Amino acid sequence: MKIVRFQFGNKAAYGKIDGETVRVYHDSPFEKPTAGFRFLKSNILPLNKVRLLAPCQPTKIICLGLNYRSHAAEFQRKLPDLPLLFIKPPSSVIGPGDNIILPPNAERIDYECELGVVIGKIAKNVSENDFASYVFGYTCFNDVTDRVAQAKDDQWTRAKGYDTFAPFGPWIETSLSPENLKLETIVNGEVKQSGSTSDLIFGVPRLVSFISSIMTLMPGDIIATGTPEGIGPLTAGDTVDIRVEGIGTLRNHVVSNGQAAG
Predict the structure, then answer these.
(1) Contact at 8 Å (CB) between 135 and 159?
(2) Which residues does 241 contact at the CB level (< 8 Å), separation at least 6?
(3) For residue 92, how far is the Cα from the chain centroid?
(4) Of these four, 34, 55, 106, 251, which has the most CB atoms within 10 Å of its CB?
(5) What domains sit in the chain, N to C, each tagged with a CATH number?
């Protein structure tokens, strides 16, 4: 099942994709919604008449560094003993079709294709065996990164936290197993990254358990599970697609700060 968050006119709501239509929910999908739309006569909308938004509104985005064996080898780093965590702020979120805005004087801004895990209910001290009952579904995630700032700073908040640096979507797929999924980055039609979640150092069960032992995860929070080898730069004018098997494709365009302001 594909769950979307969308805009219709000046209203935003959640819904479920059904062919070429969206069946609309009164409430959030994290609140056991009933079909229907308070401000519409019909609870079914044509998919091509709505604007898809980021499919949920996380209170936090917990990301993983060096969580693919191939990516660790790419950076000539030893495999971590524990998951390496950092956080992106909610203000960095954009959805499908939105622009990634290059910061002023940016030297190198990279794409990173990732599988995003969407938490479905309050999670604290979750066991690995019980992780699935806390996962609402999965989405495509692009961990956009200022690579120069990342190299200069001891921690990665600046490099990872710019506005527009957390594109995800286009929806949440609720019927998916995360163990062996192909994921790719395509820039201007050319495949730049290609990997599989089978190469993860710490898989989804371990991540949900480990992170929830540190911080309480809330409905709609995202765990971005890391990127495989093949990272590379984005420039203004690029179109970047993040494709995850079983989910679909997240597409965003890259613009300069001046273009965004103008």
Answers:
(1) no
(2) 184, 185, 186, 187, 249, 250, 251
(3) 11
(4) 55
(5) 2-53 (2.30.30.370), 61-261 (3.90.850.10)
Give dist(CA 214, CA 212) in Å, integer: 5
Question: What type of residue is 77?
Answer: R
What is the tens place of the pLDDT at every residue in 243-257? Answer: 999 999 999 999 998
Exposure on the CB side of residue 228, measured as CA atoms within 13 A: 18
Residue 43, token pair as written in the block: 């609870």
> How many degrees, rounded to 5, is the angle at CA 12 between CA 112 and CA 9?
115
193: Cβ contacts below 8 Å, ≥ 6 apart: 111, 112, 113, 183, 184, 185, 227, 228, 229, 230, 231, 232
Long-range contacts from 28-32, C-beta under 8 angstroms, 24+ separation: 28/219, 28/220, 29/3, 29/136, 29/172, 30/56, 30/120, 30/121, 30/136, 30/219, 30/220
- Give the tens place of pLDDT for each residue, 213-222: 999 999 999 9
Whether 151 contacts 214, CB under 8 Å: no
Residues of the chain falling short of pLDDT 70: 36-41, 258-262
Side chain identity at 162, as an amino acid letter? Y
Q: Confirm whether pTM is higher than 0.90.
A: yes
